Amino acid sequence: MGDPVSELLLGMRLFGVDYRRIQIAPPFGIRFGTVAGRAQFHFVARGQVLLRTADGVMHTLAGGDAVFLPRGGEHDLVSAPELPARDVDSFEASTLCESVGAIRACCDGGSQPVLIFSGCMEFDLGGMHPLVALMPEVMLVGTLLDRYPEILPMLEAMAREACDERVGFAAILARLADVVSASIVRGWVECGCGDAAGWIDALRDPRLGRVLTAMHRDPGRDWTVAELAAVMGSSRSVFAERFLAVTGVTPLRYVTELRMRLAAQWIGRDRVPIDAAAHRLGYASQAAFSRAFKRVVGRSPGAVRAAATAEARRAS
Prior knowledge:
Layout: H1 4-9, E1 13-24, E2 29-32, E3 38-46, E4 49-53, E5 58-61, E6 66-69, E7 75-78, E8 86-87, E9 93-97, E10 100-105, E11 114-124, E12 139-140, H2 151-164, H3 169-190, H4 197-203, H5 206-217, H6 225-232, H7 236-247, H8 251-269, H9 274-280, H10 286-297, H11 301-315
């Protein structure tokens, strides 16, 4: 079996659902709010901006810089540190293509407008989902370029597409943003995961890695602690203690949360019928599945389906 970290990273899903090409002249302040379960990506094609987090920390983004916020969170893009910010949704926007809008807020003065491409993204790390909570709040692409020079041509291509506005540029920018964001995540993992290095070292325990891989390969199985301990090759007590220390949850809680993350994707994004999702994940009844889903996700399966349907209608 290969490295469990690499194998489980195969479950990473990251794709944008709402993009904006923003052309705006200083002085400006743009606020991006929190969308549950969504990451945020920004690329500065021209000019310079400051990213201001909710606790006031500033990050400078020059032309050609990209940043990924894995947990999203409220933050501002501003042209000067003390400027107030206006919610991005309050700006008048036009449609460039499906899921890509355009904001143009340029005055007739002499200020050169800044050009930004932003994306709100669905982000799930599959088997490595607990790592999302351990990631830095702000992940800057510039910290990776020395080790991963292949990212630079993608950033250069993004700058050209954003500035030149050739036919189809919006769709190309959206796909490049997805790839750059995924490259930032992969680079962070391959560089040791920063403060999460201890978690990764524990995960690379080959015996525990076998358990996690088995769970993700067959999430619908009616796993017991005894069966999972047998996969690890240890007693139930040793396995349960080790698993809790590494993941922060009990083995059966982990399986349940894994199932509900998959179910939310299937029901919301893939339009899988609720009863089919329940059956695929091993639930004998839709009622039992719905109770577990609401307990973990916080909303019923029907509410998730309705929200996804409403969002698809808005996008169209």
